[in-house]
């Protein structure tokens, strides 16, 4: 049987059960469609560092595939446009892909179900648990993280599948065009490269060689990533590492070396990722509504100058400025940094949280629709936060996390004081 596998957020060979479902085909065409979302919240396109990391991840996957007699066809049109034509051209009889919870991804799949004229099979593979293994009924997902974690923490026993030694050959006549290299190199402050090989190297280095997992609870909120964060999330978001591989490594560390609050905390973070995944599935399009799934009314506005100042790191909050400069330059911001910057946009400037989420989507190396929009909803008080939102005191956060302004000065956060904006009748700055 001639089959096509559509890679999405699973750019790896190891522990890719969805791909292995197609290992018995007579011919196998492997395809990736470059993400090109429509304009959203006045933003379009992909930041330079995020694009660079994705290109490196794709090239790494291609190198691994070529070593076993396969290759990856990278297309730059929407899957709804590309895949039906490939199915007809190469007489494909079955198409498969790994499930993604995003609303727009699901809409694309719904279109393909009708357009392909061959079966489209969805496989699990990007979560810790399959839906059938969750300890609650469909539609009864806990609304908050703690009860979700309490039901799943003791069930963590990830099984990691080996990478295939061989795969069926591609159909004859496929034009595997070389992938252009990214224009930007990695920033010196965060020299991370995409791809499964680099992700595996970082996982082993951080968990077992440096034993960073043993201090993770203390260091995870360091503003500079290499000071304490695992920095595993970019590989997780692009699927260069599976979440089961990370969980299995931490559990192995606990069993063989040490178990403490920090090792447990990293597993908490993986469960947070899991929680947002299943939340996004249930929330559907409400993940992108201002009021969230419960349609909570919030007061907000859109003042273009203030949004531009926030994006450019040109506010009256030096630490926020430094964080935004770091994000654009490196594609990264720490967990605590994201909370500080998001709180500034939502609570100090009163701007709709979705504009900030869209800006993060554009730039983050570890952009993931469920985690990004779920976390922004959480902070804005329209998501899963039982406290109804988080308003961070900017002066207190700066004193606690950057008391000597080392981070702020490093990233040019100290700017001339900005005057109060003045707008005309149409709410545009004068």
Task: Characterize the structure shown.
The protein is mainly alpha-helical and 430 residues long. It folds into 3 domains: 125 residues, Rossmann fold; 89 residues, Serine Threonine Protein Phosphatase 5, Tetratricopeptide repeat (Alpha Horseshoe); 107 residues, DNA Cyclobutane Dipyrimidine Photolyase, subunit A, domain 3 (Orthogonal Bundle), CATH 1.10.579. It has 17 helices and 5 strands. The chain has a 5-stranded parallel β-sheet with strand order 3-2-1-4-5. Strand 2, helix 2 and strand 3 form a beta-alpha-beta unit. Helix 12 packs across helix 13.
Features:
430 residues; Rossmann fold; Serine Threonine Protein Phosphatase 5, Tetratricopeptide repeat; DNA Cyclobutane Dipyrimidine Photolyase, subunit A, domain 3; 3 domains; five-stranded parallel β-sheet; 5 strands
Q: Would you count the extended β strands for me?
A: 5
On the 0-100 scale, what is the average pLDDT? 92
- What structural class results from the helix and strand content? mainly alpha
Looking at CATH, which topology of the largest domain would you report?
A: Rossmann fold
Low-pLDDT runs of 5+ residues are none
- Helix tally equals 17
H/E topology pattern: EHEHEHEHEHHHHHHHHHHHHH
Summed up:
The chain is mainly α and 430 residues long. It is 43% helix and 6% strand.
Describe the secondary structure blueprint for this structure.
Blueprint: E1 2-7, H1 17-20, E2 27-33, H2 48-66, E3 73-75, H3 79-89, E4 94-98, H4 103-115, E5 120-123, H5 145-152, H6 196-209, H7 216-219, H8 233-237, H9 243-256, H10 261-283, H11 304-312, H12 318-330, H13 335-348, H14 353-363, H15 369-380, H16 394-401, H17 406-410
Parallel strand pairs: 1-2, 1-4, 2-3, 4-5
Helix pairs in contact: 3-4, 5-10, 6-9, 9-10, 10-15, 12-13, 14-15
């Amino acid at each position: 049987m001639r089959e096509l596998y559509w890679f999405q957020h699973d750019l790896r060979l190891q522990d890719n059960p969805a791909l292995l479902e197609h290992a018995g085909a007579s011919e196998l065409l492997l395809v990736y469609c470059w993400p090109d979302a429509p304009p959203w919240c006045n933003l379009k396109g992909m930041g330079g560092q995020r694009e660079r990391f994705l290109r490196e991840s794709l090239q790494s996957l291609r190198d691994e595939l070529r070593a076993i007699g396969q290759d990856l066809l990278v297309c730059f049109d929407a899957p709804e446009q590309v895949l039906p034509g490939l199915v007809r051209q190469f007489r494909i009889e079955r198409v498969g892909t790994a499930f993604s919870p995003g609303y727009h991804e699901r809409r694309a799949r719904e279109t393909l179900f009708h357009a392909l004229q061959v079966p489209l099979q969805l496989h699990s593979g990007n979560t810790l648990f399959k839906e059938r293994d969750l300890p609650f009924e469909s539609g009864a997902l806990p609304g908050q993280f703690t009860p979700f974690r309490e039901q799943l923490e003791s069930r963590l026993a990830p099984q990691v599948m080996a990478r295939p030694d061989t795969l069926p050959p591609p159909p004859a006549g496929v034009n595997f065009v070389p992938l252009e290299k990214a224009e930007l190199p990695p920033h010196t402050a965060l020299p991370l490269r995409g791809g499964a090989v680099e992700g595996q190297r970082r996982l082993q280095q951080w968990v077992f060689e440096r034993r960073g997992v043993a201090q993770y609870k203390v260091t995870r909120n360091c503003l500079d990533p290499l000071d304490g964060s695992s920095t595993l999330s970019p590989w997780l978001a692009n699927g260069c590492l599976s979440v089961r591989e990370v969980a299995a490594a931490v559990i192995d560390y606990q069993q063989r070396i040490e178990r403490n609050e920090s090792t447990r905390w990293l597993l908490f973070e993986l469960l947070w990722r899991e929680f947002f995944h299943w939340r996004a599935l249930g929330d559907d399009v409400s993940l992108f509504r201002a009021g969230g799934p419960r349609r909570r009314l919030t007061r907000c506005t859109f003042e273009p100058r203030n949004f531009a100042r926030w994006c450019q790191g040109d506010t009256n909050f030096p630490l926020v400025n430094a964080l935004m400069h770091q994000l654009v330059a490196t594609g990264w911001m720490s967990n605590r940094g994201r909370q500080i910057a998001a709180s500034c946009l939502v609570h100090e400037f009163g701007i709709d949280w979705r504009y900030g989420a869209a800006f993060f989507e554009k730039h983050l190396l570890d952009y993931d629709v469920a985690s990004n929009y779920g976390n922004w909803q959480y902070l804005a008080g329209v998501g899963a936060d039982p406290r109804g939102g988080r308003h961070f005191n900017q002066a207190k956060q700066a004193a606690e996390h950057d008391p000597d302004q080392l981070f702020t000065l490093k990233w040019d956060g100290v700017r001339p004081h900005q005057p109060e904006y003045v707008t005309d009748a149409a709410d545009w700055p004068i």
